[in-house]
Design goal:
alpha/beta; Zincin-like; 2 domains; 3-stranded mixed β-sheet; 7 helices
Length: 232
């Protein structure tokens, strides 16, 4: 039996399939944590916290794809007695969040436009048509016609919405190596973040995002399985 390729993420990197709360708890406990439960949240202001008198570890759902070393660092961050150990653990966790934050624009300002390859044009035309269709059918043409680009360097992300500059970037591999509809799925995901930006809220995966995700047939999380052409 062939194994399907593991999931990539929209605006994030996954080295393995996302863990559920029980699997995450088990990995944290292997790192020395003594928590009784892990609860995933969508709160981006508090990415990790301990409640219920130390029994509950609340984590942003982004940690579902964190490497084991990051989950072990979380255990040390909240349980280590020495400040030096907690400081090193904090640096590991912060490095993971900085590298895998899907909707913060960490790229330096560009003084030149993105390159658009000739071979990308058919894919971009299809994505622009999907953008226009969804914008008219569901957003009442509220969304501005932002630039769309493909990125060949985006190998560990599916897509990215940027506020500065205002643009949506889709991984080229979704257009050339993924099953039909995968690029459009990611585009709709990023369009919801564009809507959040337009109405003046911070792009996240909270309640408003999940409402739109159900309407647009988008998986209401940052992580989702991606079907590749050669999956069997």
């Amino acid at each position: 039996m062939s194994k399907k390729k593991k999931a990539r993420v929209d605006g994030d990197a996954a080295s393995a399939a996302p863990r559920d709360e029980l699997a995450t708890l088990a990995e944290v406990r292997r790192g020395g944590g003594t928590f009784h439960e892990v609860i995933f949240t969508t709160n981006r202001r508090t990415m990790a916290s301990v409640t219920n008198r130390g029994a509950t570890l609340r984590l942003h759902e982004q940690f579902a794809v964190a490497p084991a070393r990051v989950l072990h660092a979380l255990a040390r961050l909240f349980t280590a007695e020495q400040e030096s150990a907690r400081g090193e653990a904090r640096r590991v966790v912060q490095a993971f969040l900085a590298e895998h934050n899907p909707h913060e624009n960490t790229e330096p300002p560009r003084s030149f436009p993105r390159e658009v390859l000739l071979r990308d044009e058919p894919h971009l035309a299809r994505l622009r048509a999907e953008f226009d269709r969804v914008n008219k059918a569901h957003f009442g043409t509220l969304l501005p016609p932002v630039p769309l680009f493909l990125s060949g360097r985006m190998t560990t992300r599916n897509g990215h919405f940027s506020r500065k500059p205002l643009e949506i970037v889709i991984s080229r591999r979704l257009c050339v190596a993924a099953a039909p509809g995968e690029a459009e799925h990611t585009l709709r995901h990023e369009m919801i973040h564009l809507w959040q930006h337009v109405v003046g809220t911070r792009p996240d995966h909270g309640g408003a995002f999940r409402w739109w995700a159900r309407l647009l047939d988008v998986r209401p999380r940052a992580r989702r399985p991606v079907r590749m052409i050669n999956d069997e």
